[in-house]
Design goal:
It is built from 4 helices and 7 strands, in the order βααβββαβαββ.
C-alpha cells in the first residue's frame, strides 16, 4: 500500500461522488432505515463545489482513489463533515489511516468535531475506537469531539 491523503480537485469529483454513493448506501446494512446518505452524497455538482471551496479531500492507494472526506474549519476547530471509503476497501485500515492523516495534517487545530447517526453502529464504534468522545446527542445524531 502506498497511501496518500490529498486535497481533491474538481476533476476528482465524479470518482469521489461514485465512491460516496456506494459507501453511504451500505449504511442500510448497519442500521440505516433506507438507502441514502447525507445531503449531496450522490451529487457531482456538490462534490465539485466542495473541491472548489477546498473542502474535498481524497485518499489514494498507488494513485487509485479509494475514499474521500469533506472537511471544514472554523477558528481552531476542524469539522469532519464526512469521510467515506469504497465498500470493496472496507476493513482494510483505510479509514483509520485517513483519520490519522486528518488529525496530523492540520497542526493549528485544537479540536476535531464530527457527528454520525445514532443508528450507525459501524461509525459510532469506529470513532470511539479512535478516541473521540461523545459530547451530546439529539434524536438523530451523536456528536463527537477529540482534542489535538
Amino acid at each position: 500500500m502506498s497511501l496518500k491523503f490529498l486535497p481533491a480537485g474538481t476533476s476528482d469529483a465524479l470518482t469521489l461522488t461514485g465512491i460516496s454513493k456506494r459507501a453511504f448506501e451500505t449504511d442500510v446494512l448497519v442500521g440505516g432505515p433506507t438507502k441514502g446518505g447525507p445531503p449531496g452524497y450522490m451529487s457531482v455538482p456538490f462534490h465539485t463545489k466542495m473541491a472548489r471551496m477546498k473542502h474535498l479531500y481524497k485518499l489514494t492507494d498507488n494513485g487509485l482513489i479509494v475514499g474521500g472526506a469533506i472537511l471544514s474549519f472554523k477558528d481552531d476547530t476542524l469539522n469532519i463533515e464526512r469521510i467515506f471509503i469504497a465498500p470493496e476497501h472496507f476493513r482494510k485500515g483505510y479509514g483509520i489511516f485517513m483519520m490519522q492523516e486528518i488529525e496530523g495534517l492540520f497542526l493549528d487545530v485544537k479540536e476535531f468535531k464530527l457527528d454520525t447517526p445514532i443508528w450507525n453502529v459501524r461509525t459510532n464504534a469506529f470513532y470511539k475506537k479512535l478516541g473521540y468522545k461523545e459530547i451530546k446527542r439529539d434524536k438523530g445524531l451523536v456528536y463527537y469531539m477529540k482534542l489535538s
